[in-house]
C-alpha cells in the first residue's frame, strides 16, 4: 500500500497510516522509530547511529548496538565508531586505552604502543668513572625495547634511570683518598699561622716577664 505523499511510507511494501511501514523493499532496512509513547516503522538505506543493519531472509532490520558508548557498529558485539571522547579498541569503547596500547588521537583508536622489558639490577655506584674516593655517586639501571610502537609518533617510556647512592669505599685501595687540594692547603696555612702567632705571643710574654723582674 502507498499513501501518496505521506513520507512515512517511502520504500515500504506495506504501510499503515498509524504505524508507518510494516514491510520494506528488499534492499532497505526496517527501523522501528520511537517518539515518546508512539512508535512507527521506517524503511532506510542505512541504519541510524547506535544501530547496525542485520540482513535476514525474511526482512532486513536495524538492530541496536549492544556495546556501551558505541556510535555505530558492524555487528551486535563489534563497534566501528565510538561516541565522542571514547577510544575504539577491538570493537569496544574506552575512556583510556588498556595497558600496552597507546591512544591515536586523530582516529580516536588504541594502537599497539611501545613495549619494554623488565628493569635490570642497579649498576655499581660510581662517580667520574671511579668506584671509590668519594662519599656519594650514581647508580644506573636499564631496560630494553621489546617491541617498537605501531606509529613513530608514539613515544617509548624511559629505558634508563639513575639515582644517588653511597659508595661502599670512600677511600681507594693503596691509600688513595678523595683529594681536595684547595681545602688541604688552607688547613695547613691556618695551622702554620696559629703556630707562628703562639710563638710570638710566648716570646712577648717572656720579654715582659724579664723586664718586670
From TrEMBL:
Keywords: Developmental protein, Disulfide bond, Glycoprotein, Heparin-binding, Secreted, Sensory transduction, Signal, Wnt signaling pathway. Residues 174-213 are annotated as: Disordered. It comes from the Eukaryota. This is R-spondin-2. The keyword Secreted applies. GO terms for cellular component: extracellular region. InterPro entries: Furin_repeat, Growth_fac_rcpt_cys_sf, R-spondin, Rspo_Fu-CRD_dom, TSP1_rpt, TSP1_rpt_sf, TSP1_spondin_dom. SUPFAM superfamilies: Growth factor receptor domain, TSP-1 type 1 repeat. The lineage of its organism: Eukaryota, Metazoa, Chordata, Craniata, Vertebrata. Residues 114-167 form the Spondin-like TSP1 domain. It comes from Sterrhoptilus dennistouni. Pfam families: Furin-like_2, TSP1_spondin.
Amino acid at each position: 500500500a502507498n499513501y501518496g505523499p505521506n513520507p512515512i511510507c517511502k520504500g515500504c511494501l506495506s504501510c499503515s497510516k498509524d504505524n508507518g511501514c510494516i514491510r520494506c523493499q528488499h534492499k532497505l532496512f526496517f527501523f522501528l522509530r520511537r517518539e515518546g509513547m508512539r512508535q512507527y516503522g521506517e524503511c532506510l538505506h542505512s541504519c541510524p547511529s547506535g544501530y547496525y543493519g542485520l540482513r535476514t531472509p525474511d526482512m532486513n532490520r536495524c538492530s541496536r548496538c549492544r556495546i556501551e558508548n558505541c556510535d555505530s557498529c558492524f555487528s551486535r558485539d563489534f563497534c566501528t565508531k565510538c561516541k565522542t571522547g571514547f577510544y575504539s579498541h577491538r570493537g569496544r569503547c574506552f575512556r583510556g586505552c588498556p595497558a600496552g596500547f597507546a591512544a591515536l588521537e586523530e582516529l580516536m583508536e588504541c594502537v599497539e604502543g611501545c613495549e619494554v622489558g623488565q628493569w635490570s639490577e642497579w649498576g655499581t655506584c660510581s662517580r667520574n668513572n671511579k668506584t671509590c674516593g668519594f662519599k656519594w655517586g650514581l647508580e644506573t639501571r636499564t631496560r630494553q625495547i621489546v617491541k617498537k610502537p605501531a606509529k613513530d609518533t608514539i613515544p617509548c617510556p624511559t629505558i634508563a634511570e639513575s639515582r644517588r647512592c653511597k659508595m661502599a669505599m670512600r677511600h681507594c685501595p693503596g691509600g688513595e683518598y678523595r683529594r681536595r687540594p684547595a681545602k688541604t692547603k688552607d688547613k695547613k696555612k691556618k695551622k702554620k699561622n696559629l703556630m707562628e702567632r703562639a710563638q710570638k705571643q710566648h716570646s712577648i710574654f717572656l720579654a715582659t716577664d724579664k723586664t718586670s723582674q
